[in-house]
Amino acid sequence: MIQITKHCKNWQYLLFILHIYLFFFVQIHGQRLEIKRNIDDINSDQFQSLYVPLKKVYIETTIHSFAADVTIIQVFRNDENKPIEAIYCFPIEEQAAIYSFVARINDREIIAQLKEKKVAQKEYVQALRENHGAYLLEQDEKSQDNFIINVGALPPSTECTITISYVTELDLIDGFIIRFVIPTTIAPRYDSKQGGISLPASTNSKYVQKSPYTIKFYCLIKKIVGETGELIRKVSSSSHPIKIDFDQQDAYVVTFDQENTQLDRDILINIELAEKQVNTILTIESNAVMATFIPSEEDCRQARNNEETNEFIFIVDCSGSMTSDHKIGLTREAVMLFLKSLPDNSQFNIIRFGSDFTALFSEITVVYNKANIRQAQQMVSHMQANLGGTELLAPLQWLKRNPPVKGRSRQIFLLTDGEISDVSAVLDLCRSMASSTRIFSFGLGMSPSRALVKGLARATNGRFVFIAPNSRVDVYVKEQLHRALQPSITNVQVKWNFGEIDVHTAPTQLPPVYANDRLIIYGLMDNISTLPSDVNLSVELYTKEDHHRLGEARIERISSIDNKGSIARLAAKALILELQHAKKAPTGSLQSRFQDEIDLKENTTEMEETTKKRIIELSLNYSILTPYTAFVGIEKRMNQSNIDMVLREVPIQVSADDQHLILSSMITNKCDPSSGKYSGSLDFTFNQADTDACTA
């Protein structure tokens, strides 16, 4: 009897253990099955019935040479029986000058006013408390290519149309291709503090594989006429199938070739010129001018100094977000090409980074010889996107602690999709290295962080490129290596020969000049129309020390004046970006032993506040959005209540080459024993069933 009882207790214990095991097995694996089912059914009626107030997105654009005027139209509709507050995070190029924000609802038009951000936020919240409608547009201060729209108290069964307008510069590729980019999605970004993927712009907006809203695109490209006739040879897109209408006399019209286009990749339009352009005045307004210089190789050769550049460091993103062949595959190909092309007697190293970083060689750099090249090629050929998160600060901090040897100049080639959350901290570090280091950045994938990739190059006098999927890597490698092997011309000055008119240059410090690359310079002035129509005006670009002329542009006749204000806004935006990205002045001793004894915070804060005030002043004077200002519009309402208002944050469609991040996040999420609920950084199914699956 005693033995039987003992056996029973043993069986009871085993059954108890088995019960516990089965419970957690079902919870974890059942959750994964439920997640997998939801992924498979992401297009089902269940998804379509979810509360997504954004219904349509339209893009309308006019391109004139190196400038584009863009209008984004977003249609929100409340299909619920309660008022909602709709939140939508979306990307716009950091250098864009957003100058208009308009809401249309029930035949009413609310033109938002630009105000200091805290004032605008306070007015927005107060209006909702008083049962009015309110509309707010903000720029994220950490990742400055992210923007947030707030549509407050949208009544049931009501539609609201939001219109945002901005102007932006266009890049020149290979000396003869003008590239226009519309970012459409915010890629999931790694947050080092959280140790995982962060949600965009401090909101709770979720990522999804496919959204119920789609995008329509209309682009008017004005013809460029030169001395030899029409200068545009070809218009194409490497991102979407397009249709081109050639019937208009003075412009080409580009639209998508298919309906219901998803927002899963950036829109890229390439305008190929018939010949390389030099020294062209693009547009004149009544109080602003925009000049473009494209110095020749001969111009730059004569202006170069004799500084030797012989240290090359490759910083390669091997985080999980780089899994796609459009990213890690192109990265392997690019680094292999670099290893075959470096000059003799140079030094090099390769650093891979993710959650941590590792250098190929223990020394900071090693000599470029056959043995070291062979070792590097072997490592690169097996390189995978398997290093976890995206911790870019750590390898850059290591390089800062180990500056280049005297007599060397360090060139960094950084290849990344840029999916980090705190861009500002990385850029601040890079600015502190700019005296001895240049970064040549490569943005990879369908939706790279353009603010990071461009900012890295801008902060260190380097250059950036974006490698679109299915592109030829060798072209970009050759271009960037060519730039790295020639010192940039940084001592550039501009002279405005505009008679008695006083012209103020923007930016005040011109960026570096490279051969066959465009440099845009703005001049702000009083009314130019007071000059005679046949006056000869010119703009000269030259080096400061020896006054070597890099180029000259002439205006022989002022035939018409454009009064839209686009050029003035771009000039003001250039000044604002210069202030935002300026290298911080030293605040005392750099010795670490003094840092604990002297509180430098007060001086730093004072400088930051002065810069912030200047940015706000420019923002309000020229009516363009900045991280410290916001557009706010108030719709006065009578006899309505917002007391039952619910929050609806529009889901963000993840880019086509980041789909794996959703599945990875779902699989690695786990049950939180403290709450008994399913916990994780992302929730892609938008229903309570997922979180209830782990309820004990």
Brief summary:
By secondary structure, this protein is of the alpha+beta class. It is built from 15 helices and 40 strands. Residues 311-485 form the VWFA domain.
Mean pLDDT: 79
CATH C-level class of the largest domain is Mainly Beta
What is the CATH third-level topology name of the largest domain?
Answer: Immunoglobulin-like
CATH structural architecture of the largest domain: Sandwich
Oligomer: single chain
Instruction: Pick out the low-confidence regions.
Output: 1-7, 22-50, 663-696
Radius of gyration computed on alpha carbons? 28 Å
For the biggest sheet, the summary is: 8 strands, mixed
Describe the structure in your own words.
The chain is globular and about 80 Å long. The chain is built from 15 helices and 40 strands. Strands 5-4-9-2-1-15-20-19 form an eight-stranded mixed sheet. Strands 24, 25, 26, 27, 28, 29 and 30 form a seven-stranded mixed sheet that branches. A six-stranded mixed sheet has the order 6-36-7-8-3-37. The protein folds into three domains: about 55-275 and about 625-650, Immunoglobulin-like; about 285-300 and about 490-560, Immunoglobulin-like, CATH 2.60.40; about 310-485, von Willebrand factor, type A domain (Rossmann fold, 3-Layer(aba) Sandwich). The longest helix has about 40 residues, at about 1-40. It is of the alpha+beta class and about 700 residues long. A hairpin with a 3-residue loop joins β22 and β23. Mean pLDDT is about 80; it is low at about 1-5, about 20-50 and about 665-695. Keywords: Membrane, Transmembrane, Transmembrane helix.
